[in-house]
Amino acid sequence: MASHTYNKPGCIEITHHGQVFMLRRASEEPRGHAAAIMTEVLLDAECKGIINASQKKTLLHSMALQLA
Question: Is 11 part of any domain?
Answer without folding.
Answer: no
